[in-house]
């Protein structure tokens, strides 16, 4: 593994700063312990960038983060910027990073830590031992399709429209990632679409089937998204790897988060390949900027800390450090320490900062 870690940290908005501080603590300790040179630069994105630079992502920031080995992002958005035109909103900054770096494959693992079984709204026997991986296509589909907009038709009537478009090559590359990933796990892949009513996802299904010819060992199944959302809650352990479109993946992963106890527990990795063949990746929690709890020091930083673990696994190919972080998180939970979102009877409530400290203490041991 390389000795220089060039990392861009983009805290963003709302709870983004609070949880990023915890990721930073962990990173600084790891870099000292394992003797890395941590070259970390903090950058602006989202509302924070709009307030300072007038844009959700400046060209300078984009240029700098493109050169880093990995990007860690907190979250963007909030009520303060909701009145802005669509292309000026904080979320556009995030979408631009994904598109410009071509981070087309988004890995969203939903793992249930044993000590959190009681925090889930589902029965323990349904979620105990759950370990599923949702792979979301991230740079195509309805979030990027053109034409899009709101048009005035008459004095009283407006038309709001988006385009759900997928090209064969976009589906093919995410399919390959999904099949390759399934090969490293239980060789079961479920592709989620809405092929009964949406042509773009009929193409999605056809390409998945075509790609499956190259992976005869993988058992490929298909499910409509409405059924998949129901099955995720009814019997989540029937799944191992799920691959789906940008919008369906966005929705299903929030659903999967509640299986794990809280949205504050779900990390993610968005991976792509740059023009010169190098792997590019951004790590961020699945959740948003949580304006309702921002600034209160009560947010759960574990999704962010687990995203750092994913960074060591995917960008720096260091499973040892990745496992070390996951184990530290599990130990803290085993000892009964909780932020409010994952609280059940007799647990000890911690603030965001205290939870970061506890994980650090555990790592040091
Ligand atoms: P959200 O994920 O921010 O919050 C949903 C609920 O989950 C809230 O009740 C919140 O308090 C809770 N929650 C989220 N993260 C938590 C954490 N770490 N610890 C404890 N509780 C947590 O979704 P939202 O309210 O729909 O959106 C708020 C803003 O975030 C919007 O502007 C939205 O566009 C933006 N957003 C950004 C991203 C991103 O940056 N990747 C993702 C989703 C939403």
Please characterize this protein's 3D structure.
Helix 7 links the parallel strand 8 (188-193) and strand 9 (219-224). The chain has a 10-stranded mixed beta sheet with strand order 2-1-3-12-11-4-5-10-8-9, with helices on both faces. A two-stranded antiparallel sheet has the order 6-7. A two-stranded parallel sheet has the order 13-14. The protein has 2 domains: 1-120 and 261-365, Isopropylmalate Dehydrogenase; 125-255, Isopropylmalate Dehydrogenase (3-Layer(aba) Sandwich), CATH 3.40.718. The chain is 40% helix and 21% strand. The chain is globular. With 365 residues, it is of the alpha/beta class. Nicotinamide-adenine-dinucleotide (NAD) is lined by residues 15, 75-78, 91, 94, 263-264, 284, 287-293, 299-300, 303, 341.
CATH level 1 class label of the largest domain = Alpha Beta
Mean pLDDT figure: 95
Structural class: alpha/beta
Task: Report how far the terminal alpha carbons are from each other.
Answer: 23 Å
**Range of helix content:** 40-55%
Amount of beta strand: 15-25%
What is the name of the CATH architecture of the largest domain?
3-Layer(aba) Sandwich
């Amino acid at each position: 593994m390389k000795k220089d870690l060039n990392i861009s940290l983009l805290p963003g908005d709302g709870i983004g700063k609070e949880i990023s501080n915890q990721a930073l603590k962990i990173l600084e300790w790891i870099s000292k312990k394992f003797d890395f040179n941590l070259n970390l630069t903090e950058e602006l994105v989202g509302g924070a960038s709009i307030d300072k630079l007038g844009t959700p992502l400046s060209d300078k920031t984009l240029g700098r983060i493109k050169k880093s080995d990995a990007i860690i992002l907190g979250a963007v958005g909030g009520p303060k910027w909701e009145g802005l035109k669509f292309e000026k909103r904080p979320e556009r900054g995030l979408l631009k990073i994904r598109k410009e770096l071509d981070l087309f494959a988004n890995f969203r693992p939903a793992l249930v830590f044993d000590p959190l079984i009681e925090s889930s709204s589902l029965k323990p026997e349904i979620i105990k031992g759950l370990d599923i991986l949702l792979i979301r296509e991230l740079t195509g589909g309805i979030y990027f399709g053109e034409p899009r907009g709101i048009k005035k038709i008459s004095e009283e009537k407006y038309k709001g429209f988006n385009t759900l478009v997928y090209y064969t090559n976009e589906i093919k590359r995410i399919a390959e990632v999904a099949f390759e990933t399934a090969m490293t796990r239980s060789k079961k892949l479920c592709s989620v679409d809405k092929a009964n009513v949406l042509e773009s996802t009929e193409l999605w299904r056809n390409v998945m089937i075509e790609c499956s010819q190259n992976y005869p060992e993988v058992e490929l199944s298909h499910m409509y998204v409405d059924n998949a959302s129901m099955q995720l809650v009814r019997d989540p352990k029937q799944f191992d790897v799920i691959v789906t479109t940008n919008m369906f993946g966005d929705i299903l992963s929030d659903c999967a988060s509640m299986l794990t106890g809280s949205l504050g527990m779900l990390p993610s990795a968005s991976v792509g390949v740059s023009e010169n063949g190098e792997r590019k990746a951004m790590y961020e929690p699945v959740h948003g900027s949580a304006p309702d709890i921002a600034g209160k020091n009560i947010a759960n930083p574990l999704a962010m800390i687990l995203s750092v673990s994913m960074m060591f696994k995917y960008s720096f190919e260091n499973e040892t450090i990745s496992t070390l972080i996951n184990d530290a998180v599990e130990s803290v939970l085993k000892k009964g320490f909780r932020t409010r979102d994952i609280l059940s009877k007799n647990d000890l409530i911690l603030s965001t900062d205290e939870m970061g400290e506890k994980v650090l203490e555990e790592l040091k041991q």
